[in-house]
Design brief:
The protein has seven helices and six strands, in the order βααβαβαβαββαα. With 154 residues, the protein is α/β, with parallel strands linked by helices. It has one domain (2-153): Molybdenum Cofactor Biosythetic Enzyme, Chain A, CATH 3.40.980.10. A hairpin with a 2-residue loop joins strand 5 and strand 6 (122-127). The radius of gyration is 14 Å and the shape is globular.
């Protein structure tokens, strides 16, 4: 499974702080047999996020795009909207599984607005921006992602 990881963060994109969620997500993917073939870092700008998601989804080498960040209730949290701009079909069960797993740890996981879906043969999933929450969310669905990618290839 070839994966692109896109971190969405105003502060990290400006160099105010170092992105920790993206590298952690990449490590979880590699530890579970995935291959990270592209990475990106973008500010919380809907058009920029959508543009990168579109470009990544058009790359025939990329099976899965994982975003981290921009899924909360803040005014600048627009990753779900940008994802919906790009996907053709939602896969709500993946987002529901991540939120359900998170709510077993903290009720605040219910505030995450993660969106998952497909564009052509690429699966796109949103993770929270907190490194801990991103790893927990990804861990909740990592075992089903290879099957989802295989279904898209069929």
């Amino acid at each position: 499974m070839n994966v692109a990881v896109l971190t969405v963060s105003d502060r990290a994109s400006r160099g105010v702080y170092t992105d920790e969620a993206g590298p952690l997500v990449r490590r979880v993917i590699v530890e579970n047999g995935g291959r990270v073939v592209a990475i990106g870092l973008v500010p919380d700008e809907r058009d920029q996020i959508a543009s990168i998601l579109l470009a990544m989804s058009e790359d025939p080498e990329i099976d899965l795009i994982v975003t981290t960040g921009g899924t909360g209730l803040g005014a600048r949290d627009v990753t779900p909207e940008a994802t919906r701009d790009v996907i053709e079909r939602e896969a709500p069960g993946i987002a529901e599984a991540m939120r359900a797993a998170g709510m077993r740890i903290t009720p605040n996981a219910a505030l995450s607005r993660q969106v998952c879906g497909t564009r052509d043969r690429t699966l796109i999933i949103n993770l929270p921006g907190s490194p801990k929450a991103a790893a927990e969310s990804l861990g909740a669905v990592i075992d089903i992602l290879p099957h989802a990618v295989e279904m898209l290839r069929a």
